[in-house]
Design goal:
alpha/beta, eleven-stranded mixed beta sheet, 26% strand
């Protein structure tokens, strides 16, 4: 390890979403042969990669259920802390619009953890199965960093991240020759057609072909601690942007990162993986994900009971 490099890393899990298209709290649903959630496999992989603590970002009203179903089990294996995403947790001087009903998105979720996370950290969604290599790539990258504003993300091949049961949202990435991220373009609707994947162009109301080999973001990022101050600054810019509908619009984590890239403030290394993403955007995805996990257990990649 390089002199001055960080020695401890934290896994930050965004688990506050309700899963409206899925139809319930999918971050607590059972997928493994022992009743394990997808999240438990992610934490198992992260711990093997070297992450030493887990911070869960949840809603206060699911705290008791979340601890009963997942948190208390995880706490027996690794240090666990909790952060609550609260719609009223916004920078001083701002007010929540009267008609806003939900928190402010993934950027706000990570912002919620600013007082708790002090180490380099990896951010993930609770309901995505990322694969062990993804956590190893981010952990190793973070442990080698000696400079601020040097971040990373794991880039997946689009065709490895799609579902046959509907459309998904993916961030299509453009990189330079050194695999540094240049731009993320959010494609909010990507769907598999008989002749390949296509995204829905909101401006033309047409489905447009997209290369199945495109590198995409699955919201698995690696940051160092000064990121929180930059994130707070970008949140303020979001809240003061007159073009935003603050009753509805969300402050997404990739948008904040893109702003930092555009300003030249940060550098993001894209760590490519051939891992297959397994996720449950829709209820119909569940049997497929359970089958994939059962296969990995039979292959010895995971124990029958985590």
């Amino acid at each position: 390890m390089k002199e001055g490099a960080y020695l401890k890393t934290t896994l930050v899990v965004m688990a506050a979403g309700m899963g409206s298209r899925y139809g319930g709290l999918k971050q607590m649903d059972s997928f493994g042969p022992g009743g394990e959630s997808i999240l438990e496999y992610s934490i198992y992989d992260a711990c093997l990669a070297g992450f030493e603590e887990v911070v869960f970002i949840i809603k206060k009203d699911i705290e008791e259920l979340f601890k009963e179903k997942i948190g208390d089990k995880i706490a027996k294996k690794v240090q666990v802390r909790y952060v609550f995403q609260d719609i009223n947790d916004i920078p001083e001087g701002f007010k929540v619009p009267e008609n806003r009903a939900k928190p402010w998105g993934t950027g706000h979720a990570v912002y919620s953890a600013r007082e708790v996370v002090k180490n380099p950290f990896c951010v993930i969604n609770a309901d995505d199965f990322y694969g062990r290599e993804a956590f190893q790539l981010i952990h190793d990258y973070l442990c080698e960093q000696t400079q601020p504003y040097r971040y990373c993300m794991v880039g997946y091949i689009l065709k490895n991240t799609l579902t046959e049961f509907g459309h998904v949202a993916r961030g299509a990435c453009t990189m330079d020759e050194s695999d540094n991220l240049k731009e993320i373009v959010e494609r909010t609707k990507i769907k598999v057609f008989y002749d390949g994947p296509k995204y829905f162009n909101e401006e033309t109301s047409e489905w447009v072909e997209i290369n199945p080999e495109t590198i995409v973001s699955m919201n698995i990022w690696g940051f160092t601690p000064e990121f929180f101050q930059s994130l707070a600054d970008k949140f303020i810019l979001f809240l003061t942007d007159k073009s935003k509908n603050l009753e509805m619009n969300e402050f997404y984590l990739p948008f904040a990162v893109d702003e930092m890239l555009n300003s030249g403030m940060a550098q993001v290394k894209v760590l490519k993986t051939h891992e297959l993403w397994h996720g449950v955007t829709y209820a119909d995805d569940k049997p497929r994900v359970k089958e994939a996990i059962a296969k990995m257990v039979l292959e010895g990649r995971y124990p029958e009971n985590l």
